[in-house]
Fold these 4 entries.
Entry 1:
Amino acid sequence: MTNGYEKLLVDLAMARVDFIVVGGVAVAFAGYVRATEDVDIIVQADDANVQRLLSALEDFGEGHARELSASDFTMEEGAVRVVEDFPLDIFTKMSGHVYEDLLSSTGDHQVGETTIRYLNAEGLIQLKENSLRPRDRQDVQALRQITGDSIA
């Protein structure tokens, strides 16, 4: 295990939490490595999955996630942020998309014996292409080069 975020992602996968890594970590998994300060995931918002998530987060960092409850995970835009050694942003809806919408655009990243699902380059391009954030625009340009998509 090389870093804390990989340990967290493995812990979530081992707890059978249905999630997809999005954001900067997913961009790195897709082939464009850049600095990122947080981990972004989108989770399936059903009650059983949220309970698995909450249980898995009980031992994350200093335990700040223990203050979360299932009612924090509504089907609204925006993230629940847990700040420990690094910030973890947990989405149930992102840019109008829910977990199920993104499943067909995922790839698998191996961490040891554990498979971590992440939003692939095409999915990231689709998610970020209308963003005004400079970092997102850079990501889209780099991901298009990786995929051979020449649309500017």
Note: The mean pLDDT is 92.
Entry 2:
Amino acid sequence: MAKKCDNKSVAILVRNGDKILLIERKAYNPGFALPAGHQDGDDEITTAKKELGEEVGLAATKLIEKVKLRLNNPCKREGGTHHDWTVFEAESWSGVIKPSDEEVKTYVWTDRQQVSGLAEKLEDFVESLGLVLSDENMPKIVEATNSDDAWKRNPGLEPAMHPLFKTLKII
């Protein structure tokens, strides 16, 4: 039986100068994303610190809330039809990146132009499906990115990240 979804997710924006840390997920949802995860009963700050440590081995000492947004992005958990996202910026962090062997395929420090390129790759993929990149179409888009072998081999931005990055004015 799948784990129950609490429909609450947290993402952490980590900057190093003008670069943004993105991870490429190993499994569901394939694509480049901020370190992120479900709250699973924890508060938002605890979750953000835990996920940052688990996914990339960094410790956040100062987190600033940047965005709250409900998205129609499904997950593989039972009841995971949407998520209430909170994005924090790690204004102060420490450590050396040690990607999780279980969750992270690779990581990259990207600039805005590279993030825009990953976003365009997602937009082109969505267009090839005959869809418009919208919250309404998010379930179909997520399903497609999880089933398309070419996407999994060479992905763009993870679908849920697109509206979050737009709201953050990164793309």
Note: The first helix runs from residue 44 to 56.
Entry 3:
Amino acid sequence: MHRLFVAIRPPRHIREQLLATMGGVRGARWQTDDQLHLTLRFIGEVESHVGDDIHAALGAIHHPRFEIALDGISGFERRGQAETLWAGITPQEPLKTLHNKIDQAIARAGVAPDQRAYLPHITLARLKRGSGSISALLERSGGLTSAPFAVGSFCLYESHLTPEGAVYSIVERYDLD
């Protein structure tokens, strides 16, 4: 079985900017440079032959290159407490269009379409119950922005879960038109 997802790897200068914002929240499990990505579609556990079909389907996608930029820091909450800190992305439309193409391609490979609304973001940290307040971080870095950066490809990743956190490896890179 392979645990797969499709994502964009931000350029080094954007990853460095994101890494510089991290810290100051007790109990947060911060992402490392190798873990920073912008998810286009989480696939989950699949058999090897399904992974091969997904790879072939993704290779048939045509989508123009585009530019995006960082746009603020926020969090996903569960039961009134932040559980994930993330950096937002603007504009969202080219990402949503690419997400839809990827979702359709993966469905043709036999994986059920994603039913959740797509919100483009880059995860910065996961927070456990009892983690420190995120208020100071949001006050300091919540207005995070960047110059636009080019998106010229997306990747199929495999995720390996370890006690120290997830380890991601790029299976294949797909160039945009």
Note: The chain has four helices and nine strands.
Entry 4:
Amino acid sequence: MATTISLVVFRGDPVDWAMYRHTALHVQYADGEDMILHVTGAHPFFEYMPMDNHPKDLNLTIVASILISTLPDWITKSMIQNACAATPVRNDPRHTDWNCQNWVGEALTRLVAIGCVTETERKSAVSQMVDACLEAGDETTDL
């Protein structure tokens, strides 16, 4: 089995609005292990929180799973984890609108830099993530 990387979008909590939809990277390694790479919290308390072999009950709130790429064999776990761990967590006052969705886009940019995914794959994944977030079920528009 080859290593794959996907972008997952979770239903928003406490309400399913686009801004509350949680996003993360999901890596399924060739050895059968998997990992969720994401930031959790809210401004200014975001933290990078990788999860090995994530709890399967998380799957109940996934609203989209976007396959980004099947990775080349030379890409190692540590390369992926180091690139994501090096992605800035922006808790400063200039980034009050920054969230996990931004982090995913920035982490994918770092993965492009190490040859893990292509720029085309990154752009497609981010576009699909935005679409999945905009499909939030509790969002209403008053005209």
Note: The first strand starts at residue 4 and ends at 10.
